[in-house]
Q: What sequence folds into this?
């Protein structure tokens, strides 16, 4: 469906081009099954996190040794763990930690990486080369290995794990924005702003960043799923969230000791990680197609 048809269906001939393009994008999202599936999964995650105190039948940290390792039943729908804590309640409260992980990592990594990439792409020269060579050095290490090294150096805790993951994510945004900034800096409106003695920060903020926004949005959406997976991996090996925090990766780590006889301990938090990671990835993949200018014509 072309933008003109969308305009006629909504009666938007008198609206601004920006508003027309926005509503056309919303319509494309609505017509894309993958995008809708991702939105539904992420919306459910957010709602569960917000209303966790109302949805959780028990406290996520209350210990009941009389009910330890109980299988799924009417009183504990997903069973209990080795300390008698309700797994359903811990999975529900774990959604809050997952939201925190995703938002924190993407905010820090995306902001710092975009600033570095835009600066390097617009200025070029020695400064740009130094910035991008440092980014290349970070990218040379596998993400999980570098996260493990940084988290171990900072000390095992969720906050330190988030800083380690955010640091590893910075080069991805820098690389993406750098490539687009190199192209945008030659556009006529950027050259015109430069000829009128506009400052470098002003040009980057008003002309370079807006041109990179759609690509950064797609990368950020996928990056949220990756951040949750990395945080779960660090917690699994003891470098992330520490007991008794109801973090999904830590729950899987504790459940592996009882996997053969008490499968529910690791299965349900593992499924939560899987569903959320898939949700972010399919939404990011759909947004990439929707925001691609070649496919919007």
A:
């Amino acid at each position: 469906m072309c933008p003109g048809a969308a305009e006629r269906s909504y009666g938007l001939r008198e609206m601004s081009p920006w508003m027309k393009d926005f509503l056309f994008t919303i319509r494309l999202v609505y017509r894309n099954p993958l995008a809708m599936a991702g939105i539904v999964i992420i919306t459910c995650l957010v709602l569960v996190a917000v209303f966790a105190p109302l949805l959780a039948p028990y406290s996520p940290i209350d210990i009941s040794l009389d009910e330890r390792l109980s299988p799924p039943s009417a009183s504990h729908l997903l069973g209990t763990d080795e300390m008698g804590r309700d797994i359903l309640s811990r999975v529900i409260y774990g959604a809050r930690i997952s939201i925190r992980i995703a938002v924190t990592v993407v905010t820090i990594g995306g902001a710092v990486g975009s600033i570095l990439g835009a600066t390097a792409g617009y200025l070029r020269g020695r400064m740009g080369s130094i910035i991008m060579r440092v980014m290349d050095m970070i990218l040379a290490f596998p993400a999980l290995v570098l996260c493990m090294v940084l988290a171990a150096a900072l000390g095992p805790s969720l906050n330190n794990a988030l800083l380690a993951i955010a640091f590893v994510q910075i080069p991805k945004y820098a690389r993406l924005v750098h490539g687009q900034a190199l192209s945008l800096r030659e556009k006529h409106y950027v050259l015109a702003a430069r000829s009128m003695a506009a400052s470098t920060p002003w040009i980057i903020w008003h002309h370079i960043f807006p041109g990179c926004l759609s690509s950064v949005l797609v990368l950020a959406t996928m990056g949220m799923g990756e951040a949750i997976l990395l945080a779960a991996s660090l917690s699994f090996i003891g470098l992330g969230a520490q007991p008794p925090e109801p973090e999904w990766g830590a729950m899987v780590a504790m459940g592996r000791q009882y996997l053969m006889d008490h499968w529910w301990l690791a299965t349900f938090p593992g499924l939560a990680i899987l569903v959320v990671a898939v949700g972010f990835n399919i939404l990011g993949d759909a947004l990439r197609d929707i925001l691609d200018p070649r496919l919007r014509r």
